[in-house]
Design goal:
Number of helices: 14
CATH topology of the largest domain: Rossmann fold
CATH class of the largest domain: Alpha Beta
Largest sheet: 6 strands, mixed
Number of strands: 12
Distance between the termini: 22 Å
Number of domains: 3
Radius of gyration: 29 Å
Shape: flat
Strand order of the largest sheet: 3-4-5-2-1-6
Strand content: 15-25%
Length: 429
């Protein structure tokens, strides 16, 4: 018999209310043991919670949800008690003394929901992103995945693959009969349409960019005003500024949300070809490495001398409050981080640019695992299209496509991957 698990599912104590969730075959007995009765299903009831010696622990709202139509797919109970640390500890101790009960591990409630088919893997990943969302854009995208938008789409593709597979199997099974000869005429067209539709998703902005933030690297030679601009954009004195070349010796990073868009700004060591300072040299190498990973580079050095990054590089004329600043003929922006001139315009431009590069509000986005699974689907469908003269090979391509779609939804996966995913959740989720 599977263990019955329990844990607080609400915020950190102390709080006005703490929700302690119990899930598993002994959930009903645990509720009886502490409350003395089993309330009517799915109706809140008020009662006293007592330990094994009859001592009152708290007065709480009691909720009973018999499985399988519950969040976890098994019997589930909730105790809505006062949110003091001592109250929670006392209730947890009483639960731990009951046979078959133990405290839940991180993500175990959600993992049981997945195991019992209440959610699929894509929905679980969306829920993990929702719990960690810090901006409105992150929340909307995570809601789309957690709410099943991506899963429904993937399932529709899977149904089309199954339909095509049935047509291919019929052609193979009855190839010698008069009423069936070769593949139906619409199979090649449907294969091509399905491949094209899925391939379009591979070109969309990825979930990692949304989760980690749009990466903006501020780069340039020493004393170009990088750290001052960095501080102005993140609205914090995160970087030390001084009129001494080489003040910034390492890559500094700071996440910030601007108008609901997640950014991660990087301040870097001044780029120059030679330095006798070993520590500064290491900082320069790290700066060059992070420039290669940037979504956008704000170049504060001489015009046309920035890294070869094509559209990823914006020439910024900085320190315009100084008479001796380096003027540029065609800068994207002219700013003074010290006085604030031009900074708001730069910030608005960054938001517009990042929004175009990130998933649109409310649109589900693929993470690395999902992207790899869909790429395998597209590859399998391409192979099937290329072998249309051989129904056996077309059928095999469709089978591989279905396997990859199943893998995306978690119908075929590994324990290690599940451990990694559900380890992202908190104890009570």
């Amino acid at each position: 018999m599977q263990d019955t698990i329990f844990a607080p599912s609400s915020g950190a104590a102390p709080a006005a209310i703490a929700v302690i969730r119990i899930s598993g075959p002994q959930a009903g007995e645990a509720l009886r043991a502490l409350a003395g009765r089993l309330p009517a299903p799915r109706r809140a009831s008020y009662g006293a919670l007592r330990d094994g010696e009859g001592q009152v622990l708290d007065h709480a709202l009691l909720l009973w949800f018999p499985g399988p139509k519950t969040a976890t797919g098994e019997d589930l109970a909730e105790l809505h008690c006062h949110g003091g640390r001592a109250v929670i500890a006392a209730v947890e101790h009483a639960l731990s003394q009951l046979p078959g009960l133990r405290k839940a591990e991180p993500g175990e409630f959600t993992r049981r929901a997945f195991t019992h088919g209440r959610i699929d893997l894509a929905e679980a990943e969306g829920l993990a992103d929702l719990l960690s969302a810090e901006t409105e854009l992150q929340r909307q995208s995570a809601m789309a995945s957690a709410g099943g938008a991506l899963s429904a789409l993937v399932d529709s593709w899977r149904q089309e693959v199954l339909s095509l597979s049935a047509l291919v199997e019929a052609a193979l099974d009855f190839a010698d009969e008069d009423d069936v000869g070769g593949l139906p005429a619409d199979v090649p067209v449907r294969l091509s349409d399905l491949r094209f539709t899925i391939a379009q998703w591979l070109d969309r902005p990825r979930a990692e960019a949304l989760r980690e933030g749009f990466r903006v690297v501020i780069a340039g030679p020493p004393n170009a005003g990088k750290s001052t601009l960095f501080n102005a954009l993140v609205e914090s004195e995160a970087a030390i500024t001084a009129p001494i070349a080489g003040t910034t010796r390492d890559v500094l990073t700071h996440p910030v949300a601007i108008q609901g868009v997640p950014f991660r700004f990087f301040d870097t060591a001044g780029l120059r070809d030679e330095t006798e300072d070993v520590v500064e040299a290491i900082g320069i190498e790290r700066a060059r490495a992070i420039v290669d990973q940037a979504d956008l580079i704000l170049w504060l050095g001489e015009e046309g001398q920035g890294p070869n990054a094509d559209e990823r590089l914006w020439d910024i004329e900085a320190q315009i409050d100084r008479i001796d600043h380096h003027a540029k003929s065609h800068p994207r922006h002219r700013v003074s981080a010290k006085s604030g001139e031009g900074v708001d315009d730069l910030r608005r431009d960054l938001v517009t640019h990042a929004r175009a590069a990130l998933p649109r509000p409310g649109e589900a986005a693929l993470n690395q695992r999902q992207h790899a699974a869909l790429a395998a689907v597209v590859s399998a469908l391409q192979d099937a299209e290329a072998r249309q003269d051989d129904p056996l090979l077309v059928g095999e391509g469709l089978r591989l496509a279905r396997v990859s779609l199943d893998r995306l939804l978690g119908r075929a996966t590994t324990e290690d991957m599940l451990d990694t995913l559900f380890g992202r959740f908190c104890i009570g989720k």
